């Protein structure tokens, strides 16, 4: 903080799902490291799940919450995203407005609110802040390439490319997402671009995400958790649509010195000792993220493929991910005792462990970035939204893994896991990409330079 400058107080408000909380807590850690005061806004439901003693270790960080408008026993699963969004816009927004108004004066411990950084999926949060005279920035937690795809949807609709009909040729090229004309296929567009397989209806989430993406242009700036070296072309095509753009990722690598605990799940760190007992690059790590739900048939195919590949594997298998009893199925499959199953794993520690040879992932953006930074080859089995386009970039643009989308067959799983574990070319590409991104987050690198520019930008907004 410059001498004589009033303390800067930023409210950070993520969409209340694990992946969004992760990256916005990494942003929070970076802003704390720059000397700012932060109010991190959870929902009441999520704040009850957080380890407050560790999460609020800094005297310049406090955790607050607003109701999400859903009953305590509501599952808040991927199938209920529309319910959550609707209740946040109504019940949540009323409480949020009242909270912001209360923060516009010094309260003794914290200076008055200077600025809001709100998730781009909470457009009411930036609108209400600006209406109260508080400058607001939007943070989008997905990749720049997926954001550009959403920006391109109106043009794709105009040309009849979207929505994609049931039964259409999914390998047909898509020519109207700028910079991706040479490699993007229909199957690589966000999942909401496809008509519903059973009803042939348009996914209502498509229009929501398109409108939210357009809304980001009204914020003072757009923050993206990415690096210029990864997504330079997409960033260049996004920039004309926004007032300013900050590419400051991977944030978990930039904010490592002041890292905050991010998980709403209890991590099983006993798996680290298990990994210690394995040879270098001999274990497959499997995690499909915090939202993916799969059928018992899909689970069986994934398991059979993993066992067939012959490698030991560590699987972070949430209790709510498969309807039946997957742990018993794994024990029955045997694999010579080479399987370790945990409900949730300390993923970044796992990925940097010498024993891990590849990462079978849903290609969520946080997981993709964590795999990139550690130089671990990826096997991508995307589930929905931005994961489809992320996996295409992994397989075709960056070359640090393979793309298994739209397939869940044991023979394919076995083949792709073996390729990721054994291909020297994939490993070399993954390691080169890791070195490139580490330069971005080192002092003087593009992401670190942009992060410093963001801090200055926020301070200037506070002064004005």
From TrEMBL:
Pfam families linked: UDPGT
Entries under SUPFAM superfamilies matching the protein: UDP-Glycosyltransferase/glycogen phosphorylase (SSF53756)
Key words of the record: Glycosyltransferase, Transferase
EC numbers, comma separated: 2.4.1.-
Superkingdom field: Eukaryota
InterPro entries xref list: UDP_glucos_trans, UDP_glycos_trans_CS
Gene Ontology molecular-function annotations: quercetin 3-O-glucosyltransferase activity; quercetin 7-O-glucosyltransferase activity
Family as reported in the entry's similarity comment: Belongs to the UDP-glycosyltransferase family.
Name of the protein in its database record: Glycosyltransferase
Organism: Lolium multiflorum
């Amino acid at each position: 903080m410059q001498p004589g400058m009033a303390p800067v107080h930023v409210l950070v408000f993520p969409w209340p799902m694990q992946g969004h909380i992760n990256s916005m807590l990494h942003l929070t850690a970076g802003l704390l490291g720059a000397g700012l005061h932060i109010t991190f806004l959870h929902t009441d439901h999520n704040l009850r799940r957080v380890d407050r003693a560790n999460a609020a270790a800094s005297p310049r960080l406090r955790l607050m919450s607003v109701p999400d408008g859903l009953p305590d026993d509501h599952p808040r699963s991927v199938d209920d995203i529309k319910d959550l969004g609707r209740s946040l816009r109504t019940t949540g927004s009323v409480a949020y407005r009242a909270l912001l108004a209360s923060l516009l004066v010094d309260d003794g411990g914290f200076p008055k609110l200077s600025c809001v950084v709100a998730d781009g999926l909470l457009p009411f949060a930036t609108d209400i802040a600006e209406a109260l005279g508080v400058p607001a920035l939007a943070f989008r937690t997905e990749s720049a390439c997926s954001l550009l795809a959403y920006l391109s949807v109106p043009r794709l609709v105009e040309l009849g490319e979207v929505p994609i009909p049931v039964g259409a040729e999914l390998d047909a090229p898509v020519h109207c997402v700028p910079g991706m004309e040479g490699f993007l296929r229909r199957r690589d567009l966000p999942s909401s671009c496809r008509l519903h397989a059973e009803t042939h209806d348009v996914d209502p989430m498509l229009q929501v995400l398109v409108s939210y993406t357009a809304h980001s242009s009204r914020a003072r700036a757009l923050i993206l958790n990415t690096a210029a070296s990864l997504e330079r072309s997409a960033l260049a095509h996004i920039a004309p649509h926004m007032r300013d753009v900050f590419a400051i990722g991977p944030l978990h690598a930039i904010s490592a010195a002041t890292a905050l605990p991010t998980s709403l799940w209890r991590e099983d760190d006993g798996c680290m000792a298990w990994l210690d007992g394995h040879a270098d690059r001999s274990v497959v790590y499997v995690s499909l993220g915090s939202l993916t739900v799969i059928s018992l048939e899909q689970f069986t195919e994934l398991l059979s493929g993993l066992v067939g590949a012959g490698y030991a594997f560590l699987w972070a298998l949430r209790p709510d991910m498969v309807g039946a009893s997957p742990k018993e199925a794994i024990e029955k499959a045997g694999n010579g005792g080479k399987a370790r199953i945990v409900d949730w794993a300390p993923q970044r520690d796992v990925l940097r462990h010498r024993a891990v040879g590849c990462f079978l992932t849903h290609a969520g953006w946080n997981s993709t970035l964590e795999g990139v930074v550690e130089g671990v080859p990826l096997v991508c089995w995307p589930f929905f939204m931005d994961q489809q386009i992320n996996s295409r970039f992994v397989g075709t643009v960056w070359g640090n893994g393979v793309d298994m989308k739209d397939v869940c067959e044991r023979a394919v799983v076995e083949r792709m896991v073996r390729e990721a574990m054994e291909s020297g070319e994939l490993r070399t590409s993954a390691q080169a990409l890791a070195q490139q991104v580490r330069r971005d987050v080192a002092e003087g690198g593009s992401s670190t330079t942009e992060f410093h520019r963001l801090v200055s930008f926020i301070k200037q907004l506070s002064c004005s």
